[in-house]
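Problem 12. The chain below contains 106 residues. Write out its predicted structure in token notation.
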Amino acid sequence: MDAKLAMPCRNAGVPPTPVVEKVSALIEALAFDESFLASRGLSPSEYTAALPMVLEAMRGSQSASNSDRRLFLRTIFDEMVSREIISGYDIPTYGEDTIYKLHVPD
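Solution.
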């Protein structure tokens, strides 16, 4: 796996900063568009109160797809084993733990 694919913040597919800033401004501006919010059954105060939780949930759903990152780590650890830098490693049980335990040779 390419290192750029394992680092989504620096991935070539990430939109430019000005686009990200415009989307951020749009999300914030929606709090003041009472007619738009009302057409969706929301008041400005409901939108503002729910926004942090919505963003966190969206962030969590984006972060939940970690298979590329896990593959990237296993590739690195396999190479470390082949070079005898480590003697092995334990893969965590996802959902319970996120710590890879590396075995250092004696």
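Discussion. The beta strands are 88-90, 101-103. Students who got a different answer should revisit the alignment rule from Section 12.3.
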